[in-house]
Amino acid sequence: MNVLVILPLVFVMIGGPQILSAIFLATSEDWRRNSAAFVFGASLSISLVVTLAYFFGGGVTRQTGSNRPLHLFVLVFLLAAMAHTYLKREQSEPPAWMGKLETASPRFSFRLGFLLMGFFPTDVLTSITVGTYLASHGDPLWYAIGFVLLTLLFLSLPSLALLTIGDRAETLLPAVRTWMNTHSWIVSEVVLLVFVGITINNLVA
6: domain range? Predict the structure, then answer.
């Protein structure tokens, strides 16, 4: 089922600054409002990019009468995402602006969620891949709901951890942040490689 095929791309969406930002905001002064604003902003931008890609992909299919251009389009973006992830693999320290997240406001958090999840290279490429993949297979747009919701759930995990395990999360979150910062590129590359294989199979089928 195609809806299950796109779900692994969630790990590409959250790897790197995305989950790190969620962790920083979960330890900010107004963490409840900041985390909620961040996730809400992310939900809008992810949904927007996927929807635009879906209808653009559907238009290409109707005009050409073939899915091949879409598969080529997806393949190019996947390879670009792999190259970007590999080139950024040795950035072991989070960006300097993340240090400001501990004193962030809900307005800033919303803006960060919208821009980071909607315009960060790997995220916009992944969302476009999801939209065009569903369009090329003739699946309804609502199949993307699982992808969007699962992405938002992972972004919410740091704040959910604080709500459920309290003080223990304050020790756990920095450790998770360090692990994600050093290993997230490997997870992203593996998932992207799987989708490259799927796309190539669609091209030669």
Answer: 2-204
Residue located via tokens 């969007």: 148
- pLDDT, one tens digit per residue, over 108-144 is 999 999 999 998 877 888 898 888 888 877 888 999 9
How many of the other CB atoms lie within 10 Å of CB of 72?
13
Element (H, E) at 27: none
Number of structural domains, the chain?
Answer: 1
pLDDT of residue 117: 93
Report DSSP state, residue 9: G
Token duo for residue 22: 């969620």
Give the C-alpha separation, 121 to 69, whole Å.
21
Q: Which residues, at least 6 apart from 91, have a Cβ–Cβ distance to it below 8 Å?
A: none
**Does the predicted TM-score (pTM) go above 0.85?**
no
Instruction: Classify residue 134 by burial, with Cβ atoms within 10 Å: 0-12, 13-18, 19+.
Output: buried
Report angle CA 156, 15, 179 to the nearest 5 degrees.
90
- Pick from 194, 205, 165: which is nearest to 4 by CA? 194
Task: Read off the pLDDT of residues 8-56 as tens digits, 9 standing for 90 and up.
Answer: 778 778 877 788 889 888 878 888 999 999 999 999 999 999 999 998 8
Helix H, strand E, coil C: the string for 75-120 is: HHHHHHHHHHHHHCCCCCCCCHHHHHHHHCCHHHHHHHHHHHHHHC
Closest by Cα among 2, 38, 4, 28 to 115: 38
The DSSP letter of residue 139 is -
